[in-house]
């Protein structure tokens, strides 16, 4: 029980201190993150795509900017609840106050108040909240008098959900050469970092959007100092609402040494004879037709009959071990 409480407190503290190191805003990309110390983890400042502003228009067109509308809420921020409060006042009594969500393709003008209900603005005396979907919203607030229409814009993000892990590699007790990846679901921009044996190492990263929600994230760090040993790793994924997903720590084996390979082809017996220094998956690439062909999986030796058309041939024999280390060897021969 005590260990569970300690772990929960640790995660809460880490979520409070941890910073946004990398924001993912595009469909795919790659980059590099220097080694960080836990005490250096701070808050990343970012600017939303839309800027907040206000202006007035009338039947005659756009008027000089003014302060007819005072917008206390929504603000240009991140809301961790879908129910966003509205608090708006106007210089004088208006016919109605409405808003349009410009981020929607067919955004409708929705009424916040009309007639006498607008006497004290919106959300001033009686609380007014509206539910919004996850993601970024750009609102155009309108206040109408008998002669003019006043407008004010504001952008904000709703992020009420935690990122969700869909898959993780390597699994517990598996092998790694320093490559770690996970597929997660999150419809807001996120940041991420990795912890290996309670340290935050240098890592390279790449990501790729699989669909509207799922992203494949790959992190690679130099773990050669741990070769032949077991390490514990965790991946942290944090969204704009400061929700942190901890891809739980796994104990994995480190193997950073490439296998060695010996490969020959007997043109008389028409047989491959391939041996590898450790269990690997074997295949070969035939330059003459540009195709890969499997030889064996989880094997240390492959003796296989394979016919080739008469004449010179050049093959690339490729081996990949459990940790993902790979090696290739070219062989050439004249088939008869």
Structural description of this entry:
- There is one protein chain.
- It is built from one helix and 24 strands.
- With 336 residues, the protein is mainly β.
- The protein folds into three domains: 2-44 and 161-254, Sandwich (Immunoglobulin-like); 53-158, Immunoglobulin-like; 261-335, Immunoglobulin-like (Sandwich), CATH 2.60.40.
- The relative contact order is 0.13.
User: Low-confidence parts, pLDDT < 50 over ≥5 residues?
Assistant: 1-23, 34-65
| Strand segment tally | 24
How many DSSP helices? 1
Give the H and E element order. Answer: HEEEEEEEEEEEEEEEEEEEEEEEE
CATH superfamily of the largest domain: Immunoglobulins
Q: Describe the biggest sheet? A: 7 strands, mixed
Q: How widely separated are the two ends?
A: 72 Å
Structural class computed from helices and strand pairing: mainly beta
CATH topology of the largest domain: Immunoglobulin-like
Calculate Rg over CA atoms.
30 Å
Helix proportion range: under 10%
Q: How big a fraction of the residues is strand?
A: over 45%
Shape: elongated
Mean pLDDT: 81
CATH class descriptor name of the largest domain: Mainly Beta
Tell me the CATH architecture of the largest domain: Sandwich
Domains, number: 3
In short:
The chain is mainly beta. It has one helix and 24 strands. The strands form five sheets. Strands 2, 3, 5, 7, 8, 10 and 11 form a seven-stranded mixed β-sheet that branches. A five-stranded antiparallel β-sheet has the order 1-16-17-14-12, with no helix packed on it. Strands 20, 21, 22, 23 and 24 form a five-stranded antiparallel β-sheet that branches.
